[in-house]
Amino acid sequence: MQLLIGLGGNEGDVLGAFSRALAGLQSHDSVLARSSVWRSAPEGPPQADYLNAAVLVQTIEHPLAILAICRRLEAEAGRDRSREQRRGPRPLDLDLLVAPGLVIETPTLVLPHPRLAERRFALAPSAELAADWLHPRLHRTLAHLAAVPEIAAQRCDRIGSLPKA
Fold first, then answer.
1. Which of 6, 48, 122, 145 has its CA 20 to 30 A from that of 89?
2. Is the pTM above the cut of 0.70?
3. Average pLDDT in the 91-111 region?
């Protein structure tokens, strides 16, 4: 199965956290492609801009197993979900975004990500990697969703390459 995973962060050495997360993902799955790094406006309380990216992975694992790996990688980067403010700053955020034709709804995982179609910071890097993928609930391509005027108007700028793992 192929799966897009979103990376985000705005606290500490975010690019270093991205690099370590990529290495951790690569040890479990094949990272097939990496997006550019994007800078986006934060949601929530006043805080620094976020850096965002996406990776395309090939895996034989169930998405819940991938989610557990992502949570461990976040914790290793210094994220403590039990103490952080909702939508507050974080060193690393890893979100399972979408897999072709796959819909999952459990208490711990909703796939595709329930707010993917509302967020340029997730759509822009995702469309960079898999523009023609259909959102399995909305039946629109990621490129189409990223080009919706109210999404395209959200501040999110490509700033460079994602460091290698």
1. 145
2. yes
3. 97
